């Protein structure tokens, strides 16, 4: 039996516009990444998401993004290390304030979309993110993946949890393919990806080649058309195989 964390990107609605089924998804995860207002979410959505996570005993993280509301944070922006630091501090602070309002801790930070992908490969972006985490609260975890971020975390004394994906595809070089439009995914295939990541610490790329992916946490996306079915199937498949789904704090060292 092994331990694995399941996290999900949530709180991505805005005003009267609803994206995802957070209430349906949250029973199957242990950790929620809540949008901070730069790619999605208004103050009311953030507050409701924090309260929903509290109700279910789910860890809360700040899902920070490039300031790209129109593009849902999926377009790259040419920001300096200092600018990345500043937008990260700003967004972490928003979620932290709502957590304090509800007397619950902020657990972690996880970049969204293109900020995540750029940080995985660009040392300056990674350093800006890590600096922000340390400046706000050095006890916060950072959920990402890759040697570039891991090196910056080690230098700064920040704990990092290595994350992989089951409902997105990977290129042969290990980079993620971001879907502009999120359709449905085959729950059986997504569950197969999850078991592969846990049991073999890797999964197949789009061309069939094998990718080694050290995995402590698996991410599920709340904006998938069948996100709840995917989360339920992954949770049930992992549990049936004898794996234990745990909070991040049981995995971070």
Short description:
This protein is α/β, with parallel strands linked by helices and 253 residues long. The protein has helices spanning 22-25, 43-56, 81-101, 113-121, 123-136, 147-156, 187-200, 227-240; strands at 3-10, 31-35, 59-63, 108-109, 141-144, 160-165, 169-170, 176-177, 202-204, 210-212, 217-221, 244-245.
Describe the structure.
This protein has about 250 residues and is of the alpha/beta class. The chain has one domain (about 5-250): Glycoside hydrolase/deacetylase (TIM Barrel, Alpha-Beta Barrel), CATH 3.20.20. It is about 40% helix and about 20% strand. The protein contains eight helices and twelve strands. It has helices at about 20-25, 45-55, 80-100, 115-120, 125-135, 145-155, 185-200, 225-240; strands spanning about 5-10, 30-35, 60-65, 110, 140-145, 160-165, 170, 175, 200-205, 210, 215-220, 245. Helix 5 (about 125-135) runs parallel beside helix 6 and helix 7 crosses helix 8. The radius of gyration is 17 Å and the shape is globular.
